[in-house]
Here is the input.
Amino acid sequence: MDVPESGSVEALDLAEGFPAATHERWRELVAGVLRKSGVAEDRLERTPESVLATHTLDGFDIDPLYTSTPPAPDPGYPGLAPFTRGYRPGGGVPGGWDIRARHDDADPVELRRRVHNDLMNGVSSLWIGVGGDGLPVSRLGEALADVYLDLAPVVLRAPGPEAFDAARALLAAHTDADVPDGRVISHLGLDPLTTAALAGERPEVADAARFAAERAARHPHLGLFIADGTLAHNAGGSDSQEIGAAIAAGTTYLRALVETGLDVADAVERIEFRLAANADQFAVIAKLRAVRAMWNQVLEVSGVPADRRAMRLHATTSDAMLTRRDPHVNMLRTTIACFAAGVGGADAVTVAPFDSAIGLPDDFARRVARNTQSLLIEESHLAQVIDPAGGSFYVESLTGDLYRAGWGFFQELERSGGVVEAIARGELRAAVDEVWERRRQDLATRSAPLTGLSEFPNLDETPLVRETDPGRIEPSAEGFPVRRYGQDYEALRDRCDVQEAEAGHRPTAFLATLGPVAVHTARASFATNLLAAGGIATDSPGPLEDPRSAAEAFAASGHRVAVICSSDTVYAEHAEALARALKGAGARRVLLAGAPRDAYREAGVDVFAHKGCDAVALLSDLVDVLITDPPVSTTDAQGASS
Here is the structure.
């Protein structure tokens, strides 16, 4: 081949001689791979890629490949409607987003120290819990004594009965600090919808709106209401439910403020939205982009000029995703969540310390959370480009899907009489509960894995101990639930830990590892990982030659649960005999690591441990057996065996 000289107008055709790359050609390749995997031919006829699609809790599918298709709605440009790409023309390019630290200390001296430490090390605003079991309202000013309140705004988080007093105390602190009314940029954090929902009461918004409007008259930049979608998120709801509920809350607060006499455009600027950011980074990015377009739609209908349709958006890392077991993995979860929140265009971001699910975070955990944001802004340069995910085929499509699903849920709430009625009649909770049950099943079957908990658990970890967090939400029995994705597994782990502490031994299952190491290792590892997710240890005797020797080893161990682990070839020859032998040796439960088969079940196998099985149900049954029927001593077991 003659290579053209430098500067030649002749160009190389690098694709010459190769077939054209088309969508149909790609489909043929996908079908060929799936066909070899045993997928039925009727599923491969038209759109074989649909076999690889992932169904979401919001009712639409995530396709395995996205191509150039027009996004819906049109994302526009930053600072212009529909504000999918942000309401600020310059985005966060000048200095990144607002790094907001959350504080729930009840001791004003300790809170003052931690607040000062945060502000000296990169934090730019504060989210402070006041009242209840937390910081006394009367001592808020003391805790904020070192804060330049005209530079570092404070967002309050106060329970219903003390919300007004906390707001007065915050404004008094500004007065004591000689901050002019026109320079007050803090936020009262009023949210009667969330307060009532958690208490199981009917929301009352009018009183809060009147109280807020009185303060707004003197403070032109004071924030008033929080439209909080995390209420739905932390109860296990879907992304569309979260953003739909947030828009419904924002609409309710907007109406209430306008009814007090506030100008609609002024009222818009007094409402801040709060959404959760979890480890599903693409969903978070798309969710934050979609919710801005939804709010623009509401404000356009409300007659707000395009240049006044701002949406102040606070993203906080998800409480629901945090685990109490192997909590250091939470650092990775919150880093991914923070990344997604920044890329999605959040105006303020709160990263929860990794030990937040256990109790009040310590200084080290707070430092890591704070530095996570600083690193992403300063070293990863995440804020140097506005909407860096914009134009991605997948992100644009997902944004459109979440917009439509979220808008549909918002319309459902409006048709029911608004979010106040939906909360009062239990309709919002019923909708979220339905999604939670589906999510819970995904978690139970490990199709939605939790690293360090349902997958790759560490039974040898030393549990972290923290003080009780006075800011932790404890809803009433009738109120909106607060859930964590790992709670079912952690409850099992707790039961096994108590058993070990009281009886001196951890619930343990015997691994009947038939055949050479190379034959049984894969399924033995699978079983060990599965059982550890529920706090159950395993006793592996090594290679066992035949059913008789395996049953003898089991009887000598004194255990009550046995797990058969080997290859399908070995199962075909020995599984039935081994199951009978194990039952004869006293096994209360016989598990087989592999796919269910009637012949094995008839021979005595009680449970089949396989990919996609209900791990929580399986583990719950085993923990019941192992705790109520503890192992006998080795001496007694050997005597019984002989």
The chain is about 45% helix and 10% strand. Residues 393-415 form the longest helix (23 residues). The CA atoms of residues 115 and 126 lie 8 Å apart. The two ends are 83 Å apart (CA to CA).
